[in-house]
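Incident log, support desk, overnight shift.

02:14 A customer reports that sequence design results differ from what the structure should imply. Their input is reproduced verbatim below. On-call engineer (initials T.W.) acknowledged and began investigating.
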């Protein structure tokens, strides 16, 4: 197969890949172009695309440009909406509802709130006292404060304003202890979808309280609630650092790993093909219910979309875990929320999945498939190794760019955290139904924390710090990775 035919085969098997890339490029461009110009360009390209119906190759190129222009339109529209947000000068009085767990900071208590009436989301910092410590999800407050635009504070590659906008915050405010009071619980004036989200978050709070009543230690409680409920408010700075240095932070941030384990558990409940359609519908609904339970973070939404696509494709007999499915998930998410492209979790999760899909088959063939089939344990170990290495290749440049770190024992860490994370998720579910399982849960979490503490604190050089490559250097690393992949692909007859 010639090199040209190989490229054509890749594009035929993943026809949505290039449109997804074009959409992402358009979203980036839309951050720097006026909305009116984006609309003009979109309609002009659309008209040219229609006219060129007799030139299929040229029309295909124009379709990609039109998709890019659509991305620019969506991006510029959202940017204009952010820029249009204004707040009155001075102190204003308003009612708001708490929509997140309250987190203790050095001098304040931080919470996300929604203003009743206009539904705008604020990052709120309350003066620390006993009253603010007792606030919980769903509390309605009467507040008097000054509301400000999102801060433009930056540190290295971290843009705080971008972070707030990506996560839907329209502003921020500081509230003194004497300037707020709790009202009778009510969600009046809160958008309907946020009311549904609040109800599920209320269930999450109740589940977290059940974990607390099991007598689990503070560190174990923090890890269990982070892994199973997406609530990292109990994580201490030291514990976060242990997971970060050892390369295990991804198990604390709910993502495809966690939802994949849940989906696998649901799939195992039905044997045979008779109830396959019902099982897929139930599994997908359960996945989205879990996504609501943990607050719909972008990493979970991405994973839920991917699993939904996976489930639907499984009913058609198509290749479910494919580059095309990943591209479809990206297109759906970026059209709905263009700002997601600038979320670090979104970038890391898609980079990891893309690397796994493209590189893992290459690594897997380094060992004879026939030999692996004869040795199930080695097959599992080799599969875990190839997936871990592929994901690390895909995410390491971004981790270095955003966090300045490379975890040297990532492979050892994954051999530990993946099986233990699976056990923790299953035991956490069992503990909610049968409290005696909490003893086993506590034991497994203790093993995990001890192992990661040993890696981060006792092994030599657990991480390389202070990397911080520039955006151009990071991009060049990915160019090198892609170039090497294409070179190998050119001479690999199996690709």
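02:41 Re-run completed on a clean worker. Output:
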């Amino acid at each position: 197969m010639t090199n040209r035919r190989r490229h054509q085969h890749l594009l035929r098997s993943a026809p949505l890949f290039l449109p997804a890339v074009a959409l992402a490029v358009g979203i980036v461009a839309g951050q720097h172009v006026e909305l009116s110009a984006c609309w003009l360009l979109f309609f002009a390209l659309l008209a040219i695309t229609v006219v060129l119906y007799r030139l299929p190759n040229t029309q295909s190129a124009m379709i990609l440009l039109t998709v890019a222009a659509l991305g620019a339109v969506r991006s510029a529209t959202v940017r204009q909406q952010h820029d249009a947000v204004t707040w009155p000068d001075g102190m204003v009085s308003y009612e708001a509802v708490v929509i997140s767990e309250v987190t203790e900071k050095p001098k304040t208590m931080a919470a996300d709130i929604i203003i009743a009436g206009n539904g705008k989301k604020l990052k709120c910092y309350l003066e620390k006292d006993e009253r603010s410590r007792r606030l919980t999800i769903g509390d309605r407050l009467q507040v008097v404060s000054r509301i400000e635009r999102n801060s433009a504070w930056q540190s290295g590659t971290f843009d705080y304003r971008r972070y707030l906008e990506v996560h839907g915050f329209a502003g921020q405010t500081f509230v003194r202890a004497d300037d707020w009071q709790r009202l009778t619980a009510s969600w009046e004036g809160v958008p309907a979808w946020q009311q549904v989200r609040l109800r599920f978050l209320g269930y999450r709070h109740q589940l977290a309280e059940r974990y607390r009543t099991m007598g689990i230690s503070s560190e174990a409680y923090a890890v269990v609630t982070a892994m199973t409920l997406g609530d990292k408010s109990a994580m201490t700075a030291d514990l976060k650092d242990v997971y970060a240095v050892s390369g295990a932070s991804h198990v604390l941030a709910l993502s495809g790993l966690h939802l994949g384990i849940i989906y696998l558990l649901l799939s195992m409940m039905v044997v045979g093909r008779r109830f396959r359609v019902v099982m897929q519908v139930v599994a997908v609904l359960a996945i989205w219910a879990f996504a609501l339970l943990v607050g719909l973070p972008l990493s979970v939404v991405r994973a839920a979309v991917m699993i939904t696509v996976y489930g639907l494709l499984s009913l058609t007999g198509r290749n479910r875990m494919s580059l095309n499915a990943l591209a479809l998930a990206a297109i759906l998410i970026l059209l709905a929320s263009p700002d997601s492209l600038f979320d670090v979790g979104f970038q890391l999760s898609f980079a990891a999945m893309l690397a796994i899909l493209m590189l893992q088959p290459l690594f897997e063939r380094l060992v004879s498939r026939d030999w692996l089939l004869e040795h199930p344990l080695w097959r599992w170990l080799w599969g875990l190794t190839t997936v871990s290495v592929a994901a690390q290749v895909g995410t390491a440049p971004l981790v270095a760019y955003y966090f300045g770190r490379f975890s040297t024992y990532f492979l050892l860490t994954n051999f530990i955290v993946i099986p233990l994370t699976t056990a923790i998720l299953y035991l956490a579910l069992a503990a909610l139904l049968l409290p005696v399982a909490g003893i086993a849960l506590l034991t497994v979490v203790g093993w995990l924390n001890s192992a990661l503490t040993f890696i981060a604190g006792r092994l030599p050089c657990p991480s390389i710090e202070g990397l911080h490559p520039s955006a151009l250097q990071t991009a060049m690393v990915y160019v090198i990775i892609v170039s090497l992949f294409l070179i190998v692909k050119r001479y690999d007859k199996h690709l």
